[in-house]
Specification:
Blueprint (H helix, E strand, L loop, with lengths): L10 H6 L8 H10 L2 E5 L6 H13 L22 E5 L8 H18 L9 H16 L3 E6 L3 H5 L7 H17 L4 E8 L16 E2 L14 H7 L1 H11 L3 H12 L13 H10 L5 H4 L4 H9 L10 E4 L1 H4 L8 H7 L4 E8 L2 E7 L3 H15 L4 H16 L3 H13 L10 H15 L2 E8 L2 E9 L2 E9 L5 H14 L10 E9 L5 E5 L1
Parallel strand pairs: 1-4, 1-5, 2-3, 3-4, 11-12
Antiparallel strand pairs: 6-8, 7-8, 9-10, 10-11, 12-13
Helix pairs in contact: 4-5, 5-7, 9-10, 16-19, 17-18, 17-19
Length: about 525
Amino acid sequence: MKILPIGTQSFSKLIEENKIYIDKTEHIYNLIRNGSVYFLSRPRRFGKSLLISTFKELFKGNKKVFEGLYIYDKWDWSKTNPVIHLDFTELGYSSINVLNNSLEDFIIRTAMQYSIELISRGTPDKFAELIEKMHKVIGQQVVILVDEYDKPLIDNLSKEEIYPEVKRTLHDFYQVIKASDEHLRFVFLTGVSQFSGLSIFSGLNNLNNITMNAKYTSICGYTQEELENNFKEYIESSAEVMGIPREEVLSAIKRWYNGYSWDGETFVYNPFSTLVFFDNKKFANYWFKTGTPTFLIEQIRKRDELEIFTKPKIVGEDSLNGLDYDKIESTALLFQTGYLTIKKEESTELGLQYELDFPNMEVRNAFITNVLEYYSNGQSREINRIRVNLGKQIKGKDEKGLEESLKILFAHIPSNLHISLEAYYHSMLMMLMMAVGYEVEGEVNTDKGRIDAVLKKGKEVIVVEIKHGKGSKIEKLLKEGLAQIKEKKYYEKYEEKEVSLLAIAFGENKEIGCKFE
């Protein structure tokens, strides 16, 4: 079997070491043929750096590493171009001085590689001089490849004293690209986020943002066909080790790691998680563990936005593009960083509308669990124990056990985080059920009313009514909850399933009651 390319971001190294490469060169060929200045946003660990490296080897004319790939017999290998490859993960940016010094050092090192002497002062001027002289010295237009352009912005997003200066510095730096157009053959920039409609590139009026372009939605990540064609041996060996049929393994891999889309039509696998699964042959939260979304969770807590996880998220196109430290929208932040993805796209009179959801089981379970741990003051062991118990208690209709688990969970939440609203308890409960493994639909409309929640797992369906009332006895609230389900016949639309009814009541002093039927 070919070697799994876990962590390999160099295209030439990947090919030379006989590692698996999913051929994306048709996309690359079409991009170069149809334009010259592009921007692509994708989540971290999604193959952006490998894509940049592939462009680099192509323009350098490293023909041998492209043998057998789509682009091999279509490219003019007699021409090469000088390449400026800027990777912001390798630069310092803890302060504005560190960022300026890092950019200047990078420019000087690149100039030395091409035996170019620079005389300009100031980082933007040096950058402009470098581009012009590379063109004149080499005799071919320059290619600029920028990887993780937004790393200094993302990592300083919550630091109001640094962020504006970082943004201004990068804005001035990137303006050089527009002014240097006559010296440039091709420009490609990648990042995680799209800051305020890419205002940082405001001078680049020819910039083509292909992030949500249907033609390039699979330029990073693996399609179903690519997975099955390129990882046949690994799929079969996983089935053998796990002792389950091949089709069951494929189905499980899809639930865990597929589901990312930028057009609602083409869905791709997370490449990092998929590769690590094939290496370990165990289902786990691999991608999520590579970066802790503490800042994301803090933003959600500040704005009391727990409902973002428990209601359908229908947004317009503008809601997904803007991102800035002074007007952060949680939905945009979660979408751009890969915790939400497009499940459906619809054209309306008001423009494009998108339905967002967690991409897959890995992200949903891990993110929800982290939110619960954050709200419960970091009690990760307790949360995991409650998750295991809840699954058993719901399946066995263990009312007392379920009450006790919920009491323990809410007892761990500091009083300053409590919100005295039914919506708060509703949201926390729904997230907990998601963490247990249920597919959760919140506020489901019927012709007779609105169901608080519906839990689904296989043929099992649980219709849930949640009550919250000060001064009311728990027993009374539970009776009202079950009576409401029956009176409005919320269960009717699920009669073909194995339906259970569940009322959950929250009273004063963290009193909790549960009643199955």
